[in-house]
Design goal:
The protein has 287 residues and is mainly β. The chain has one domain. It contains 1 helix and 14 strands. It has one helix at residues 56-60, and strands spanning 8-10, 63-64, 69-74, 89-93, 96-97, 108-132, 146-153, 162-180, 183-210, 222-227, 248-251, 256-260, 275-276, 278-286. Strands 1, 2, 3, 4, 5, 6, 7, 8, 9, 10, 11, 12, 13 and 14 form a 14-stranded mixed β-sheet that branches. The chain is globular.
Length: 287
């Protein structure tokens, strides 16, 4: 049976707050009690100010990511909008963790972006902004922070399309300063890439990996932040506008294969998930 509804994060079903130990990646002790199942959860969301716009200056200057560097595309910041209807999803599971396992990931949200006609992009990095209980990236007994990433084209429902390039690379996980639903948001970012993209539509994934069974923080969760076109426009969005209602959710763990995120039978059950908070780093090689 598909665990439908357990992979989305909704305003009316906020997650239980978690602490953030600074030495999480070096944990060698007995795993502590942690979340075992995905929502719904009874803890109500905060009604007060939820976050600070920590990256506003960087985005305005033509940089994005965390740490900020030259930006080609950014879908925009997650916003905890008090007018946001409670039934709309605010994110989708995006992780390979102890509780959501699989290869190359347990679940991934694939975000669309477009290279404009007449341009060629030299891509040096990718990132996703994820609401997470701990934000820890950790693999193996000697933890090395890594994330799975991929750029695909010609993706459609039920199909991953064609892989342009992919891999598992060293990654950073850095707080954005935004907090919602008891979760802190982290930018999970890979750099050092060398990918050339010509004009067209592509989909990206950057999936946090935390699989060390000796580390209790690998039982945490990651939800790729949603960016809704409701009551507001995306803050700090940069570059070509992210195609609306064109993302896909793929999850061996939840038994779904490149489900559209929109539509009545989509991963978000017909509500929410217009676009997602992700980006592409690099420079325009040709205009």
């Amino acid at each position: 049976m598909v665990k439908r509804g357990f992979f989305s994060l909704a305003l009316a079903a906020a997650l239980i707050p978690f602490a953030q130990p600074a030495a999480a990646q070096n944990w060698k002790g007995k795993p502590k009690a942690s979340i075992q199942d995905y929502g719904p959860f009874s803890t109500p969301p905060s009604k007060g100010p939820a976050f600070t716009q920590s990256n506003a200056k960087a985005a305005a200057a033509g940089e994005c990511g965390n740490p900020a560097t030259s930006c080609l595309f950014y879908g925009g910041d997650f916003v905890n909008n008090p007018l946001y209807p409670s039934f709309l999803a605010n994110g989708l599971a995006n992780e390979r963790t102890i509780n959501v396992s699989g290869l190359p990931y347990g679940s991934a949200t694939w975000v669309p972006f477009a290279v404009p006609a007449g341009q060629t992009w030299d891509v040096t990095g990718l990132f996703t902004n994820n609401q997470s209980s701990y934000g820890v990236l950790d693999q193996g007994t000697e933890p090395t922070a890594v994330a799975y990433w991929s750029i695909n084209e010609e993706v459609f429902a039920g199909s991953a399309g064609i892989v342009v390039d992919s891999g598992t690379s060293p990654a950073t996980s850095t707080p954005t300063g935004r907090v919602a639903f008891g979760l802190n948001e982290y930018t999970v970012q890979v750099t050092g890439l060398s990918i050339t993209l010509t004009a067209g539509t592509y989909w990206l994934a950057v999936v946090p990996i935390c699989t060390n069974t000796a580390d209790p923080y690998c039982e945490g969760v990651f939800f790729l932040s949603d960016v809704e076109y409701i009551n507001t426009t995306p803050a700090n969005a940069f570059g070509p506008v992210e195609p609306i209602d064109s993302a896909f959710f793929d999850s061996p763990y939840f038994g779904l294969s490149f489900d559209p995120t929109n539509g009545s039978v989509g991963a978000c059950a017909g509500e929410g998930c217009d676009t997602f908070s992700a980006g592409v780093l690099g420079k325009i090689a040709k205009k």
